[in-house]
């Protein structure tokens, strides 16, 4: 995908995605009637909100609707992201159609088939060792690489002193 196609997609997303301001205003003023859910195209749950508002809330002091509205307050961000992903996917499909590729574009989160692994030769197990062979392996010293090291040290010259007079002569 080149830079022109990418900018086309991003401009489509910027122009066609749902507005967070409108979503929160609908939630605040028409939340009890599912206004924000109608805005996102979630018609079934919006009608359920209307039914709960008109049928249940009068007897339960608006508690079910208050809980639903508080939950929706946090779900609006996720609804906005879902809408943006739908708009981006539609724009990518439009770019593919303009390029002459009439196959629908695959979404990034769609699972793709993995090629099957090529059959390989069966692995032969090693022959079992007897107890004596195992003991012999443990006892027999194994050849290890030899590393030669040379250490140079200087030792002071030692003189044997028989009495204190020899010490005064040498000093």
List the helices and strands and how they pair.
Layout: H1 3-16, H2 20-30, H3 35-39, H4 43-56, H5 63-98, H6 131-139, H7 164-170
Helix pairs in contact: 1-5, 2-5
Defining key terms:
7 helices; mainly alpha; 171 residues
Walk me through this protein's architecture.
With 171 residues, the protein is mainly α. The protein contains 7 helices and no strands. The protein has helices spanning 3-16, 20-30, 35-39, 43-56, 63-98, 131-139, 164-170. α2 (20-30) runs antiparallel to α5 (63-98). The chain is elongated.
The averaged pLDDT comes out at 79
User: From the helix content, strand content and strand pairing, which structural class follows?
Assistant: mainly alpha
Helix fraction bin: 55-70%
Kindly, what is the distance between the CA atoms of the first and last residues, rounded to a whole number of angstroms? 92 Å
In one word, what is the shape? elongated
* Beta-strand segment tally: 0
- Determine Rg (CA atoms, Å): 41 Å
Brief characterization of the structure:
This protein has about 170 residues and is mainly α.
């Amino acid at each position: 995908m080149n830079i022109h196609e990418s900018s086309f997609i991003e401009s489509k997303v910027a122009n066609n995605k749902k507005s967070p301001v409108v979503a929160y205003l609908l939630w605040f003023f028409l939340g009890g009637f599912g206004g924000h859910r109608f805005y996102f195209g979630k018609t079934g749950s919006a009608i359920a909100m209307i039914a709960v508002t008109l049928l249940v809330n009068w007897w339960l002091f608006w508690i079910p609707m208050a809980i639903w509205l508080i939950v929706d307050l946090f779900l609006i961000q996720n609804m906005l992201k879902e809408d943006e992903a739908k708009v981006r996917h539609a724009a990518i499909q439009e770019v593919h159609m303009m390029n002459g590729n009439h196959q629908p574009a695959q979404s990034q989160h769609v699972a793709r088939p993995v090629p099957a692994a090529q059959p390989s030769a069966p692995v032969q197990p090693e022959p079992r060792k007897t107890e004596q062979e195992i003991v012999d392996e443990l006892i027999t010293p194994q050849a290890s690489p030899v590393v030669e090291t040379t250490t140079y040290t200087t030792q002071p010259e030692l003189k044997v002193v028989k009495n204190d007079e020899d010490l005064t002569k040498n000093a």
